Amino acid sequence: MNIAYWTVAGPLAVFYLYAGTLKAIRSRDQLRPMMAWVDHVPLPALRALGTVEILGAVGLVLPTPTGIAPSSATAAAIGFVLLQAGAIAVHLRGGDRRIALNAALTLAAAVTVWPAGRR
């Protein structure tokens, strides 16, 4: 189970750490080519979203090797499922039908929920 968890959770954490860092530090103009929806979200909300993604990535990775707050890995995985459900809604509401990445991230986060809870 350990290998299965890290196979999915590791890349997922790296993705969210990267994406969250971009949202937390880059300007709207720098984000717009990658994320067309940034104009529809207030800047403080965008920064908060980036911070949540960074904390979620840490929550997926740190509890396993340290043994500290092991339930936070499950909470992070569930949080990412909910985050992507919201992201899909934002994309569809804005008329953007490109949700394949969001669907894949939702699936990956959902797959990590069960192994994270078994730790």
Describe this structure in words.
The chain is mainly α. It has one domain (2-117). The chain has helices at 2-25, 28-31, 43-61, 63-66, 71-93, 100-117. The termini are close together.
Q: What is the element layout, followed by pairings?
A:
Elements: H1 2-25, H2 28-31, H3 43-61, H4 63-66, H5 71-93, H6 100-117
Helix pairs in contact: 1-3, 1-6, 3-5, 5-6
In short:
With 119 residues, the chain is mainly α.
> Helix count?
6
Structural class: mainly alpha
Oligomeric state of the chains present here: single chain
Number of domains: 1
Distance between the termini: 9 Å
What is the percent of helical residues? over 70%
SSE topology string: HHHHHH
Count of individual beta strands: 0
The whole-angstrom Rg is 14 Å
Query: What is the residue-averaged pLDDT?
Result: 92
* Percentage of residues in strands: under 5%
Low-confidence stretches: none
Q: How would a textbook summarize the main sheet? A: none
Shape: globular
